[in-house]
Amino acid sequence: MIVLGVDGMDALPNLDRLRQQGSFQRLATTIPPQSPVAWSTVITGMDPGGHGIYDFVHRDPATRMPFSSMAETAEPGRSLTIGPFVFPLTGGQVRSLRRGRAFWQILAEDGVPGTIVRMPANFPPAESKARSLAGMGTPDMRGTFGTFTYFTGDPQEQTRQVPGGRIVRVNVSNYQVELPIDGPVNTFRKERPRASCPLVVHLDPSEPVARLDIGETQVLLKEGEWSGWQRAEFPLIPGLRQASGIFRVYLRGVRPVFRLYVSPVNIDPEDPELPISTPSPYSRELARAVGLFYTQGIAEDTAAVRAGVLSHEEFLAQSRLVMMESLRLFQYELEHFETGLLFHYFSSIDQNSHILWEKYDGELLEIYRAIDRAVGRAREKMGEDGTLLVLSDHGFSSFRRAVHLNTWLLRENFLALDEPQNTGNEELFAHVDWSRTQAYALGLNGLYLNLAGREPGGIVLPGPQSDDLERRLTERLLEFRDPETGDAVVGEVYSPRKLFHGSSLEQAPDLIVGYERGYRASWQTALGAVPAAVIENNTEAWIGDHCIAAKYVPGVLFANRKARLADPQLYDVTVTILKEFGISPAGGMIGRPIY
């Protein structure tokens, strides 16, 4: 059996042949239709009430502070300090926050071999006898989802943080500049500095060319050229311990202004600092077979194009590098696939749709065609005997208007500030007066009550008062109109405790907001800011999205089998995979076989 995971897919030649041979169906997505939520449902066969993933961002109710929903890192329990160094006596741990068993763990227990490549929401990879490579959720060497660095000699620029990266002002002297490539925090030192290694750039005095010195390696680049993967060794304990990472660079300009993009430093698949595969040597096998590749979970650098660090064309070139690496990984595994299950996730359509949706149809179509050719290769491999599924976890819509949901709560008297003038882009509820606040928004779809006994200083009493507040919030949200156009802003409001099944409801938002087409929670809302306006035009390069009402963005499912189930859900895919190998659904799974 081969299962290909693709976001937002439409019919193309090989998919059309698959449809004619078997079936094509809309595939109901999760609530909310966010990738970590949706793929956790595919992995476990549970809805969010079972697997416990509700958003990219969850919050600690004791502090109201956000954290990644997918994984957490625990520090070593005991350590020994000698001079400036700290030596752990017990191991630290990276732990997935997803609950429930992965379907390939169940397959492996029944003796079914599996290869799971780039499954989203699978970092660290679930322990099993299957071969697996982690996908979305895998951090870079800084411990983030991806932080680029843009070095520039432009005197008008200032060193600053931007979402997903850093812009660093540098001075070129005698056609040379030394740049720090930052890696992981050095936890072996008491002061916990960030480890770095030098990158020395030599500019040609007359030609648009530069030489980059990275350790013993020298790389010659023309202006407008991408490097291959470069390896950085970050010293942690001199002579004893170092960490390896890999990165690419793009020489944007030599003169009149020096400009250099440095990708996020990725975990080295040949020498991984964190667990990215099972068994551990599997990532090394892949790198030696197809070459080094992006290991960070979301590799297409949408943050760089949003910040104007990469142009539209430069972003397309970078995302094409990601896609070609993914296709090489797929081809390698396809050639070696003999029995059991092969799953491969292609990120290219999803990440490029965020930048290309409805505006650059021709460029997006080329990506569809590349993935369609991969589907054709999978069809040839399977022949008539095996089962081939191609699914997307959600669809897409335009993102024209950004909704500052905390500001709406402020206007509707559900949220209060310490001073009325203290609206702005400060995150983490910097000026919220919790003694007068009934509800707050965090994440891309979550709405929380300021509940007494759960949040510190919470003022909403559990029971009839909280039930009434949820009812009033739902009614007002469904009445919410765009002050500029008069259009409805919210299509649906969901109550997780009424909707979901399972024992993982404690992390759930009290309400989930499903926006109308064209609207989405603002980036500021996701991290607890309260800007002045309620709604603003989305002027960024990120123009497509799916974090809206689930009914508007279903996924799709193609198969070389005739469907027996008329209205499949994502959790039905899990049960269908197990049934293919004669295995009954595990406890907590709520799906039905599709074929």
Polypeptide structure, described:
It is a single chain. The model has no long low-confidence stretch (mean pLDDT 95). Helix content is 24%, strand content 28%. The protein has 3 domains: 2-53 and 98-139 and 274-396 and 553-580, Alkaline Phosphatase, subunit A, CATH 3.40.720; 148-267; 400-549, no CATH class. It is of the alpha+beta class and 595 residues long. The strands form 9 sheets. It has an 8-stranded mixed β-sheet, with helices on both faces. A hairpin with a 3-residue loop joins strand 18 (230-237) and strand 19 (241-247).
Level-1 CATH class name of the largest domain? Alpha Beta
The quaternary state of the protein chains shown equals single chain
Instruction: Please give the radius of gyration in angstroms.
Output: 24 Å
* Distance between the first and last residues' Cα: 13 Å
Number of E-type strands: 34
CATH fold-level topology of the largest domain: Alkaline Phosphatase, subunit A
Label the overall shape. globular
Question: Architecture of the largest domain, CATH level 2?
Answer: 3-Layer(aba) Sandwich
Number of helices: 14
Largest sheet: 8 strands, mixed
CATH superfamily of the largest domain: Alkaline Phosphatase, subunit A
Give the spatial strand order of the biggest sheet: 2-34-25-1-24-9-10-23
How many structural domains in the coordinates? 3
Structural class: alpha+beta
